Amino acid sequence: MYNTWGVILAAGKGTRMKSSLPKMLHPLCGRPMLWFVLEAIRNFTDRQVLVVGHGSERVREYFGEDLIYVEQEEQLGTGHALLKALPALPEEGKALVLCGDTPLLSEELLRCFLQHHCQKSGAATVLTAFLDNPQGYGRIVRDTKGRVREIVEESHAAPEQKNLREVNTGSYCFDLAVLQEHLPALPKNENKGEYYLTDLVPRLLQAGHGVEAYMLEGDESRSALGINDRLQLAEAAAALRERINAGLMLEGVTMIDPAAVYIDAGVKVGQDTVIYPQTVLEGATQVGEGCVLGPGTHLVDTAVGNGVRCRQSTVYESRIGHGAVIGPYAHIRPGTHLDEGVKVGDFVEIKNSYIGPSSKVPHLSYVGDARIGAGVNMGAGCIVVNYDGTRKHVTHIEDDAFIGCNSNLLAPLTIGKGAFIAAGSTITRDVPSNALSLSRAKQEIKEEMARRFLKKKDQ
Ligand code: UD1
Ligand code: CA
C-alpha cells in the first residue's frame, strides 16, 4: 500500500469559542474534540502529525508522545500550518490533512475518502459536502465541466458564490511529492494577509495537476460540521451522543428516551440494561448486564456489576457489586466499594468505604472511611464520625453487626462481629463481638406532668 501520513491542523486559537481553554481541548462526550479526529485516522495512517500552537503544552500533555508534534508559533493560516508540517513529512506517499475542529468525520468515511484519492489520478482531493446552510464555510467553485476550480472563503465570496451549497470540509488528500514541491510557494492571501491552504487548489491546477472532489451526500454531509463556536460545539456533541446511544442500543441496551441519555465516548454498558431519562454516564464508567439505571442517575468513573438498580443517585470513582440497590437520592463518593447485594437507600452519603455483601444502609446516613463486613444493618440516621477536626479515622464494623437508628460511631473504632448498638447511642469505645452497647441518657417518666405542660400551652 501507499505510505500514508495523517496531518491534523490544530494550532488555531479558536477565538470564536471565547474561552481560556484551547479550542482543541473543548470536550465532546467526555473527550477533547481533537481526540475524535485522531481516533478516526489512527488505524489507517502510518504516522500522525499534529500542528500545534495555541495552548500547545496542554494539547501535548493530553495526547502524549507517540505523535509527531510540529509547532506553529504564529498562526498565519491553514496553508502556513501545513507548511510547518512539511519537513516532518516524507518526500513521497500520501498525506491525509484534516482540521482538528471537524470531529464528526468517521474512520469509515475517511478511509473511503483516501481510497477514492488513491484510485484517481489527481494530485489532491478535497472532501466536500452539501449543506442547506453553508454559511461560514469555504465554497467549492466548479468550472462549466463540473471540475473543481477554486475554493472561496465566505468572507471573500461574491454574492452568487455565497449561494453555492457545496462546501469545503477542510479535509484533503495530497500526493506528498506534489505538496512538497508546491506548498512552499503558496503566497499570502491578499484579502486577509494569511496563507490559505485553499489557495493551493488553483496553483496545483495551473501547474497541470488534477484536483478532485469527493462529495459527502445525504446524511453524511452532517459529518462536515466544523466547530468554531459553542453553538457548533453543542451541535457536534448532540450528533456524537446520538451515535454512541445508537451503538449501545444495537448492542442490546434499552433506552426509554435516548435523547435524554448522556453517555461519554468509551463508556461500556452490558446487554439488557435499561436506562431511564436524565441519566449521565461519564469517564471510564462500565456498567454490567441487566441493570436498571435512572431516572436521574449520574455515574462517573465507576464500575457497576450485573443486575444493579440505581436511581436518582450520584456515584463517583467507585465500584458497585452485582445486585446492589442504590437510591433514590444517594451520594456515593470516590474510593467506595459496595459489594454484592448491598443496599444504599435514600439520603445516604458514602465516602471512601467498603461495604460487605448484603449489608444495608437504607436511610439518612453518613458513612466515611469505614470498613463494613457482610450482613450489617445500619439503622436510619446512623453517622460514622470519621473526622475529629484534625484527622480522618477509620471505623471497622464486623459481619452481622446491628447498628440502631440515630447512632454516632466516633472513629477510630471497631464494632465486633454480631454486636448490637442500641438506637440513639454515641459510641466512643470498641464494642466486642456479640456485645450490646448502649450509650444514651436514661429515660425518665414523670407521672401526670404532661397535663401541666399542655395546660400552660392552652392559656
Ligand atoms: C477552514 C477553511 C474553509 C473550510 C472550513 C471547514 C481555510 C482558509 N478555510 O475555515 O474553507 O470550509 O475550514 O471547517 O482553510 N489552524 C492552524 N493554524 C492556523 C490557522 C488554523 O492550525 O494558522 C487550524 C485550526 O486550529 C483549525 C483548522 O486549522 O483546526 C481550521 O482553521 P479555522 O480558523 O477554524 O478555519 P475556518 O475559518 O473554519
Ligand atoms: Ca473551523
How would a textbook summarize the main sheet? 9 strands, parallel
Number of helices: 9
Biggest sheet, spatial arrangement of strands:
14-17-20-23-26-29-32-35-38
At CATH level 2, the architecture of the largest domain is Alpha-Beta Complex
Percentage of residues in helical conformation? 10-25%
β content, as a range?
A: 25-35%
How large, in whole angstroms, is the Cα Rg?
Answer: 31 Å
CATH homology superfamily name of the largest domain: Spore Coat Polysaccharide Biosynthesis Protein SpsA, Chain A
Here the CATH topology of the largest domain equals Spore Coat Polysaccharide Biosynthesis Protein SpsA, Chain A
Shape: elongated
- Hetero compounds: uridine-diphosphate-N-acetylglucosamine, calcium ion
Q: Helices and strands: which structural class?
A: alpha/beta
Q: What are the main properties of this structure?
A:
459 residues; alpha/beta; Spore Coat Polysaccharide Biosynthesis Protein SpsA, Chain A; UDP N-Acetylglucosamine Acyltransferase, domain 1; 9-stranded parallel β-sheet; 7-stranded mixed β-sheet; 9 helices; 19% helix; binds uridine-diphosphate-N-acetylglucosamine; binds calcium ion
Please explain how this structure is put together.
By secondary structure, this protein is an alpha/beta fold. It is built from 9 helices and 41 strands. It has a 9-stranded parallel sheet with strand order 14-17-20-23-26-29-32-35-38, with no helix packed on it. A hairpin with a 5-residue loop joins strand 8 (139-142) and strand 9. Bound molecules: uridine-diphosphate-N-acetylglucosamine and calcium ion. Residues 99, 101, 226, 228 line the site of calcium ion. Calcium ion (CA) binds at residues 99, 101, 226, 228.
